[in-house]
Specification:
By secondary structure, the protein is of the alpha/beta class. The chain contains 11 helices and 17 strands. Helices cover 32% and strands 23% of the residues. α4 crosses α5 and α7 packs parallel to α11. The chain binds flavin-adenine dinucleotide (FAD).
Length: 349
């Protein structure tokens, strides 16, 4: 007898919690378009439930912001609103002003969830915003089972942890882009764009905003596809022995139209810049094809590539751990295998 009221109470609480789901996505944009990882965040938000409304928050300055807002408004039918914060304060991805912006937008919109992709942008802003909102963020989510039940990897991806969020709103998540495949733009683009509303910034709390200052951003200009979104990734390890030898890996990537990746050992040895590092402390990739040359397969490296669809490994040690995750393995010397591949592969058209 005593359990019935309790059950009723629980049911009432859960329906009211789930009925009013409203999600805010912290959007990243560049050159007038949303970045691919924001589309992954939209895909993730769609797992929260069909009744959930999804708003995208874009901030920055200049004409490209307006273009990106137009793109955001028509990128997917699930978007119910685009919020635009126009200010020079948001031209650069500094955590202090952006976290205050999230705090302000949450105060106005009372969202049940705030989602960002777990790239360097989201990782920089979300924890600070969560502290301002006095909630615990859940990072690196790879599965949304229920609106408050998530799966995230721990111990460098060697175990998966199921987390139930029991805190107050907003439930803040960073999602691993590779786990929420991008929604096809052509198939899903909508004819009626979502409304674009400007955020009233007059009440933003400016305290501490100027604690950090943007100096410069250094990026490697490259014709190759972006490592995080490439369909094919060719990775080299310490075994390449020098930056000069690493060029073989780059040539192979060129022929395959692939992105180049590297282990931390290769990066630390100075063969390639650290933005090419794949792994726990580098980029997380899940391409259709991942080819690893002279990579031992340390757990920290596997953490960044084990979700790749097909893994090919070339290593001269038959017991190298990389072979445990490889779909195709070749025990051999990369200094023989790569030149042979380069010779036999047709030039990229
Ligand atoms: C906190 C922490 C975070 C880390 N984060 C990362 C990370 O994000 N990414 C990452 O990659 N690492 C990371 N590491 C480092 C990681 O533990 C390994 O040290 C690193 O991945 C090893 O790189 P490697 O496979 O190139 O080198 P090694 O482990 O030295 O392996 C070289 C391999 O090449 C093979 N080989 C040698 N010569 C040839 C040849 N001629 N032909 C074919 N095969 C050959 C060898 O058999 C060997 O298996 C991290 C470590 C720590 C502690």
């Amino acid at each position: 007898m005593a359990t019935i009221p309790m059950l009723r109470a629980y049911k009432r609480r859960s329906t009211s919690t789930f009925r009013y789901l409203s999600t805010l996505i912290l959007a990243e944009h560049e050159g007038g378009s949303l970045k691919a990882q924001t589309l992954n965040a939209i895909a993730a938000a769609n797992y929260l439930g069909k009744e959930s409304s999804i708003s995208l928050l874009l901030a920055g300055s200049g004409p490209s912001l307006q273009e990106a807002a137009a793109h955001a408004a028509s990128c997917h039918p699930s978007i119910s609103k685009v919020l635009l914060a126009k200010s020079d304060k948001f031209t650069y991805p500094l955590a202090e002003p952006w976290a205050k912006l999230l705090q302000l937008v949450q105060k106005i919109g009372s969202y049940s969830h705030i989602i960002s992709a777990s790239g360097s942008f989201g990782k920089n802003i979300l924890p600070r915003a969560a502290a301002l909102l006095d909630v615990s963020p859940i990072s690196d989510v790879i599965k949304i089972s229920e609106p408050h039940l998530f799966v995230r990897p721990i111990y460098a991806g060697n175990a998966l942890c199921t987390v139930r969020y029991v805190g107050s709103n907003p439930c803040m998540l960073s999602i691993r882009s590779t786990s929420f495949p991008m929604i096809s733009m052509a198939a899903d683009s909508k004819s009626n764009p979502a409304p674009i509303d400007e955020v009233d910034l007059s009440t933003i709390d400016e305290d501490g905003i100027s604690k950090s200052r943007y100096i410069q951003q250094t990026t490697q200009e490259s014709e190759r596809p972006d490592l995080g979104n490439a369909r094919v990734v060719i990775t080299g390890g310490r075994a390449l022995k020098s930056a000069e030898n690493f060029k073989m890996v780059e040539q192979l990537a060129e022929k395959l139209g692939a992105a180049v990746g590297a282990t931390r050992a290769a990066v630390d040895a100075g063969y390639v810049p650290n933005e090419l590092q794949v792994g726990q402390t580098g980029k997380i990739v899940a391409p259709e094809l991942y080819m690893a040359f002279g990579v031992s397969g340390a757990i920290q490296h596997l953490a960044g590539m084990r979700d790749s669809k097909v893994i090919v490994a070339v290593n001269k040690d038959a017991d190298a751990p990389i072979f445990q995750v490889a779909d195709y393995g070749l025990v051999g010397d990369l200094f023989e295998v790569i030149p042979e591949l380069l010779e036999k592969m047709p030039e990229k058209k």
